[in-house]
Specification:
Elements (H helix, E strand, L loop, with lengths): L7 E7 L5 E7 L7 E10 L2 H8 L21 E9 L11 E4 L2 E2 L5 H4 L12 E2 L2 E2 L3 E2 L11 E5 L3 E3 L6 H4 L2 H14 L8 E4 L3 H12 L5 E5 L2 H9 L4 E4 L5 H8 L5 E6 L6 H8 E9 L11 H6 L3 E4 L7 H10 L9 E6 L3 H10 L6 E5 L3
Parallel strand pairs: 12-13, 12-15, 13-14, 15-16, 16-17, 18-19
Antiparallel strand pairs: 1-2, 3-4, 3-10, 3-19, 4-5, 5-11, 6-9, 7-8
Helix pairs in contact: 4-5, 4-10, 7-8
Family: Belongs to the zinc-containing alcohol dehydrogenase family.
Protein name: Chlorophyll synthesis pathway protein BchC
GO molecular function: oxidoreductase activity; zinc ion binding
Length: 368
């Protein structure tokens, strides 16, 4: 199988804050241990909106968008159309989902499998290239017709997985990484997921598919909570109508849960989570609060509670999440709500940002 790869491609390029323009750019060429991917579909993430408007999340950028002049977009999938020198792990024609991060492979964190926390993160500029890549964050991403990717970032897609579902594999991989960080073996153990956004909903689905019991989803929107039930939540709690801590204690007969996956970024989320878990329990933070928050550290210490944080999808969690989606352990397509064409990307971003028509995952399709 072979593909005619053009010399030029269309790409949405970031200029000033909030300014994306559709431009013609040279098609990038894969180097050693890289492939060229024809982007077939890309999903919109809240982090894309942050990068476009303010810069890389939780980083001081002095008000200037991070990496001005690059191509954003990181939740994408596509078809391998060209191989770099020495690549035999993939072949032309393979459908692949793409992780964001390729670590430098040399630092302490990368050797531990924590390549999303690579100690050389972002050091890929001229004269100081340490090998780290984060497509759509620090290097060109998927709001384009073609993208170069390290083979370290790819996972095969089953033929029974649609393009739209495949864009959600990285989101599910983030949820998997969070559960790994909490301990990994969740069968028969109780989990609260706070915040029914895309990562929270995928956390419900992944936790339930791994045997967690019960899985409790908390949030403020009944329609999202109902969707959580379809993905495996045993109980849902609308925090506007109930005291969330009391409700969790009632469900667990006063004991609390083993784990909390905090996916809301709400100001009091950590303190509520520490009141939900059993003594010796664990909390995983998966969301960025909009501003600094106060945390009752004494409660964490007094009750021997572990507070953990994750960034993205480390330790090859995406591969395992892809397996769950391929095996139809849950229906990832439930959180895909809207589809737009490549030329309609600004509209797709608007739908995602403003949650128009209760948009959850908005997908942009790019014709091959």
């Amino acid at each position: 199988m072979s593909y005619q790869v053009p010399e030029k491609m269309k790409a949405w390029v970031l200029g000033n804050p909030g300014e994306l323009t559709l431009q013609e750019k040279p098609v990038p060429q894969p180097d050693k241990a890289e492939v060229l991917v024809r982007v077939d579909a890309v999903a919109i993430c809240a982090t894309d909106l942050e990068i476009i408007e303010r810069g890389l999340p939780a980083m001081i950028q002095g008000g200037t968008p991070f990496n001005k002049g690059f191509i954003p977009g990181h939740e994408y999938m596509g078809t391998v159309v060209k191989l770099g020198p020495g690549v035999d792990e993939y072949k032309v024609g393979d459908r692949v989902a793409v992780e964001i991060h390729a670590g430098c492979n040399g630092c302490e964190r990368c050797r531990e499998g924590m390549y999303t926390s690579c100690l050389n993160y972002g050091k890929n500029y001229e004269g100081n290239d340490k090998g780290h890549r984060a497509n759509g964050f620090t290097t060109d991403g998927g709001f384009a017709e073609y993208a170069v990717n390290s083979i370290k970032t790819l996972t095969h897609i089953g033929d029974n997985v649609s393009d739209e579902e495949a864009t959600l594999i990285v989101t599910a991989g983030t949820a998997m990484y969070g559960l790994d960080t909490l301990g990994g073996l969740v069968a028969g153990q109780s989990v609260v997921v706070s915040g029914p956004g895309p990562i929270g909903l995928m956390a419900v689905a992944v936790a339930k598919s791994l045997g967690a019991n019960p899985v409790i989803l908390t949030g403020t929107r009944d329609n999202r909570l109902e969707l959580g039930k379809k993905l495996g939540a045993d109980y849902t709690i609308n925090v506007r109508n109930q005291d969330v801590v009391e409700a969790v204690k009632e469900i667990t007969h006063g004991e609390g849960v083993n784990y909390v996956m905090e996916c809301s970024g709400a100001p009091n989320a950590v303190n509520e989570a520490s009141s939900m878990v059993k003594r010796g329990g664990k909390i995983c933070l998966c969301a960025f609060p909009s501003k600094p928050v106060e945390v009752d550290v004494a409660a964490l210490v007094r009750n021997n509670i572990s507070l953990l944080g994750i960034r993205g999808e480390g330790r090859s969690a995406v591969h395992r999440a892809a397996s769950l989606i391929t095996e139809k352990r849950f229906d990832a397509s439930l959180i895909h709500t809207h589809t737009f064409s490549f030329e309609q990307l600004p509209t797709a971003l608007k739908y995602s940002k403003e949650r128009i028509e209760d948009a959850i995952k908005v997908v942009v399709k790019i014709p091959g």
